[in-house]
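Page header: ASSEMBLY MODEL / two components / 535 residues total.
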Amino acid sequence: MPHAAPEVGGAGTNFMAIRRVYLDNSATTPVDPRVAAAMSRAVVETFGNASSVHGFGQQARAAVDRARREVAGLIGARQNEIVFTSGGTEANNLAIRGLCEAVASHGRHIITSAIEHPSVAGVCNELEKRGWEVTRLPVYENGIVRLEDLNKALRPDTVLITIMLANNEIGTIQPIREVGALVHEKRAAGQRHLWLHTDAVQAAGRLSLNIDDLGCDLLTMSAHKLYAPKGIGALYVRRGVRLHGQNVGGHQERERRAGTENVPGIVAFGEAAKLAREELQQRSAHDQSLRDKFEAKVRSRIKDVVMNGDREQRLGHLSNISFRFIEGEGLLINLDLEGVAVSTGSACSSGTLEPSPVIRALGVTDELARGSIRFSFGKDNTEDDVDYVVEVLSQAVERLRALSPLTLVT
Amino acid sequence: VPYSAQFKDHLSHPRNAGELPDATAIADEKNPVCGDRLRLSLIINDDRIETARYLAYGCPPTLVCGSVLTELITGRTTAEAKQLTRADLLNAIGGLPSRKHHAASLAIETLTSALGHKNAQKEHK
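Prediction written out in full:
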C-alpha cells in the first residue's frame, strides 16, 4: 500500500531514497484504504446533520446508526450503549469525570493503576485536586496489577475502579475479567455504588473483547488504533450507568456528548470496527508471528537487552526492549534516519529527563528505563520488514554503544 | 525535530569516538538533572591539542555535540580552545532547539574541565 512520504527525520531527509518501515502501530495505525473509501463517500454524500428531520439528515442518521452497530459489535455491546467522542482521551475524560461527578454523593474514592495512559492518570490527578481520593495500584516487574492489592484498596466509599485493559508502552494485559468479577461480588454483597471502567484503546481490534465477559461498566476505544483516521473514539456505557455530561449544550449522544456528530469519522470507525472484527484472528496471528520472529532475532543478534513486561499476558503486536548502555532517544533518531519508525517512553527536554513512568513502575534502573524502545507491528508489516529492522537496529545499537562511557570498565 | 544535515551526519557517523589510553587530559562531566554524560580525553603536546576522543551517553544532541567538539578543537592551542563558546558549537551543528541547548553547555563544560586538568591523571567522576 503506497503511503505518502511525510517528513519524519527532520529537514532534508529524502525518504524516497531509503526503505521505510513503520513499527509504531501502538501510536497510530495507517488508514486502511477500505476505511478511507467509506469515509470519503460519507464526506461527499452524507453531509446532512444527523439531527435534522429532513431526508439529508435521516441519511446521515442512518449512517451513524449503522456505524454504531458495528462499533458495538466489536465488543459485544448494544448499539445504544455506544457514545461517540473525539477520541480515546475524551472518552476517558467522560468516563471518569462524568461518573465521579454523577455519583459524588455515594463516595469519592477512585482506584486506578500506576501505569495508566496520561488521559486516565491526568483526570484522576485533577479529581484528586478537587477532593477525590485516588489509590494507584502498583505493578510488579511483569507490569501487571495484583488482585490482592485491589482487594486491600477497596473501601466502602470507592465508587470507581479504572484500570486499563492493555498497557500502551509494554502491552501487558491487566486482569480486567477478574476485576469485573470482584466488582460484581461486591455489588452482590451490598456495595451498589461501585463501577468499573477500562481503557481499551490498545486492546480494541487486537484482542477479542466482550463486555459481558469483562464485566465492566465503561470501556474506552479509539478508532485510529484500528486503521481508521484520528479524531474519533467511543465510550461504551452500560445501560443504566449515569454520567455527568462533560460537553453540554446539545442533545446528541443521548445527552452524554453534545455537538454535531462527526459523520465521516463515525462512518470510518464503523467500517474499521467491522473489518477488525472480521479480520481479528488473521491480524493477531500475523502481528504476533512478526513480533516473535523479531524478538528471537534481536536476542540472537544483540547482547545486553532486557525485554520489558510479562512474556505471556501481553498484546501480540508489541515488543518493548531496553538496550543497556544507551539512551532511547538516540536510538530512535538513528533508526529514523534509516527510515524505521519506533517510539520511546522517555523524553529529554529543557535539561530535565523523564524516564518512562511505566518502565520505572516495573522497578528497573534509570538506565534501563532510559534505554527502552517500543516496537509495535501492524497488519501492513512484512517479514522483510523484520529482517531490515533487525539489521539496522543492531548496527545502530553497536554504533551507540561504541560511544557510550557506560561500557567503560572503570 | 528540525535537525540539520550536519547534525544527522554526526549522529550517523560519529567522529573521534573512543578513549585515549595515553591521554594527557581527561574530563568526565555529567548533567546532574538529566543524567547526560560526556567524557573527553585529549593528548596535549606543546600546548596544542593533538588528538581528541569522546564518549557520550544521553540524548542525540549530547552525542552530536561530543563529536563536533572533537573536530573543532583538534589542532588548536589550548588558548584557542578555551575561547570556544556554546554559540560556536551550536553554529557548527547547524543549530539546536533551545530546549536542547544544555547539550552544548555540557560539551563546553567538559572541555573547560579537561583543559583545567591538563597533565592530570585519569579521573572518574
